[in-house]
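Ligand: 4'-phosphopantetheine. Inputs:
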Amino acid sequence: MRVGIYPGSFDPVTKGHLDIIRRSAAMVDKLVIGVLNNSKKQPVFSAAERKQMLEMVIADLPNVSVEVFDGLLVDFAKQQDAKIIFRGLRAVTDFEYELQIAQLNRNLNPELDTVFLVTSVEYAYLSSSAVRELASYGGDFSNLVPEQIQTLVEEKYKKKKASN
Ligand code: PNS
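Predicted complex:
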């Protein structure tokens, strides 16, 4: 069985991520989305919330599941029995960082390959940080995230505003 993983912070999942999820899932028997829990980035959404949002948007994809992971990606891949890591490339600016991670991971486990999928043009400008920025200023981000999670994201920022 060919198992792939799609790792990331998903803070929150965007339409661009969903595009990569759908296309990756079509290339493997099983796709495991790995939600990083030990990010130094201080995520807005907890790991449980990020997992929940991902589960909402993959409901129609039977071969996709979501797991939270801590620590090294290579260890998570081994634990999931995965030999392929999927990552999306939006622009050349992503490439240097992605190349470095891919080479590092390959050095740690030569059996592990990283497959880069070129982001669909309509999502090229899209990022979780753009969603967070818009949401924090009350801007319209409805066309950037999957419909199923829009309310959750809005609610989060309303709560954040109320507690400030
Ligand atoms: O969505 P992101 O934040 O760009 O995803 C980055 C991610 C999760 C792929 C990367 O930070 C990662 O793999 N972290 C796990 C720790 C690790 O394995 N580090 C070594 C490679 S940098």
